[in-house]
Amino acid sequence: MTKLYNKSSEKEKRRQIRRNIAKAEKILWEKVKDRQIEDCKFRRQYSVAEFVIDFYSPELKLAIEIDGDSHFKNGAAEYDKERQVFIESTGIRFIRFTNDDVYNNLSGVLEYIAQNIRDLRR
What we know:
Layout: H1 11-19, H2 23-32, E1 43-48, E2 51-57, E3 62-67, H3 76-89, E4 93-98, H4 99-104, H5 106-121
Parallel strand pairs: 3-4
Antiparallel strand pairs: 1-2, 2-3
């Protein structure tokens, strides 16, 4: 059986992304790390196959992606959709926010994440 999660071949890619974390991702990470939301553990820059997810809860199979400006340029939206479809096909729930969501409505983002966690635990 082929390993799908956090493949060692993707380790350096994950490490580079963690070193160059975007501002919105850093803001959200400070709010979700250390089980701060609904006592749910999240990992940063977790890979599923060759795709790296910003935040992932292995316990709940919940992925959170923050879309910055680059996600809206040069066909990136199509790539993101294909990536999301693949990740969801593995049984992972995928939720997505924009940088603006994090900057301008952080409490709403956190509540939406908390609601998804509660739903998945039912």
